[in-house]
Design a protein that fits this description.
Blueprint (H helix, E strand, L loop, with lengths): L12 H16 L9 H17 L2 H8 L8 H26 L9 H14 L9 H32 L1 H15 L13 H14 L8 E2 L4 E3 L2 E3 L4 E2 L3 H5 L42 H18 E4 L13 E2 L5 E2 L5 E4 L2
Antiparallel strand pairs: 1-4, 2-3, 5-8, 6-7
GO cellular component, one term: endoplasmic reticulum membrane
GO molecular function: metal ion binding; monooxygenase activity
Keywords: Endoplasmic reticulum, Heme, Iron, Membrane, Metal-binding, Microsome, Monooxygenase, Oxidoreductase
């Protein structure tokens, strides 16, 4: 899809969303969607719109005063999106159910359906393998796994266009170490600069600034503060990713944050874009793999620049606020390299 624009400016959002969405789809349904499939296009559009709406002031207000403002427009829109997504997912699951062959497992849905049938046959009570859990597992994976990875990649390409000397070094390292063949996950350890750049993109982009709200399961005293059982707690990842006592230049794009004096990659404890603890991002290892493979592939094949007439300095890094922080609407040129 990048190729189609022939080096002319375009918005990177749609192709990246479709690509990452198809990874989740392959895992969940066992197949990819065509990029021109109207149902797929709508599912991706709705997932992105919902993530944006969840971060809106209206929904924050609703979360605080649910009884007072249940009528607000964004909540109605969100509920309609959920309803339509459930309808689509049900249709896709029905199709898989009708073609289910227990000896050929195509994806997560097949595995779930096989287990569901088995538990029903054995009359297991209160099993989590029920229709409702299946539908919500699928919709949650789709929502959590599409926008996050695509948004990080969009930040990555925008930062490469803004800082061409960093892009030069990534491309130089890749040419030197892997040449023109496609990178595999095992190449990461031999590409310390590229690895550092990907980590720095995630740190600065800070795409899930407030993680996901949690509730205390019992009374706790934390750093001298008493927090009652059942209190909603927001772990502010921004406070760690931009911590002035942890990072040399917390507000600047600086891949050296992850490099030692010899240019070797090193991990930092304050790198927590996936949060931490028991409810740490379930897709962390998948996301890391996707980011590395997509980023190296896209950098190997294209050079990213601002549109004609726009300088690198003018590329705006102000985020658009939603539940996740994505770059403000922008266009880039992707010029074919090889
Ligand atoms: C760059 C990409 C990603 C980032 C930055 C990210 C970040 C996060 C964060 C901060 C949380 C909240 C953790 C908490 O509650 O404290 C989370 C939860 C979650 N993420 Fe991701 N995520 C990414 C990609 C993915 C992918 C690809 C998947 C798909 C499998 C995924 C699935 C989930 C799920 C299911 C949860 C909820 C886990 C739970 O509540 O136990 N994420 N993610």
């Amino acid at each position: 899809m990048f190729e189609d624009h022939k080096g002319k400016p375009f918005d990177t959002a749609r192709p990246l969303n479709y690509a990452t969405s198809n990874i989740i789809s392959s895992i969940v349904y066992g197949s990819r969607f065509e990029y021109n499939d109207p149902r797929f296009k709508e599912m991706v559009r709705r997932a992105n719109q919902s993530i944006c709406i969840v971060g809106s002031a209206q929904i924050q207000l609703y979360n605080m005063f649910p009884r007072l403002v249940s009528w607000i427009k964004n909540r109605q829109l969100l509920l309609r999106n959920v309803e339509m997504t459930i309808r689509d997912v049900k249709a896709l699951v029905k199709n898989l159910k009708e073609t289910l062959n227990p000896s050929v497992c195509r994806g997560l849905v097949d595995r779930f359906l096989i287990r569901k049938e088995k538990e029903e046959d054995s009359c297991v009570k209160d099993t989590p393998y029920n229709e409702k859990n299946l539908i919500f597992t699928i919709t949650n994976l789709f929502a959590a796994g599409t926008d996050t990875t695509a948004t990080t990649l969009r930040w990555g390409l925008l930062l490469m266009a803004k800082y061409p000397h960093v892009q030069d070094q990534v491309q130089e390292e890749m040419s030197r170490v892997i040449g023109s063949r496609q990178a595999g996950v095992d190449d990461r350890k031999n590409l310390p600069y590229t690895d550092a750049v990907i980590h720095e993109i995630q740190r600065l982009a800070n795409i899930v600034p407030m993680a996901i709200p949690h509730k205390t399961s019992r009374d706790v005293t934390f750093q001298g503060y008493f927090i009652k059982e059942g209190t909603t707690v927001l772990p502010l990842l921004t406070s760690v990713l931009y911590d002035e006592s942890e990072w040399e230049t917390p507000h600047t794009f600086n891949p050296s944050h992850f490099l030692d004096k010899e240019g070797n990659f090193f991990r930092r404890d304050a790198f927590m874009p996936f949060s931490a603890g028991r409810r740490v991002c379930l897709g962390e290892s998948l996301a890391k793999m996707e980011l590395f493979l997509f980023f190296t592939f896209l950098l190997q094949r294209f050079r990213y620049t601002p549109p004609p007439g726009v300088t690198e300095d003018e590329l705006d890094l102000t985020p658009a606020v939603g539940f996740t922080l994505s770059p403000s609407p922008h266009e880039l040129c992707a010029v074919r390299r090889q």
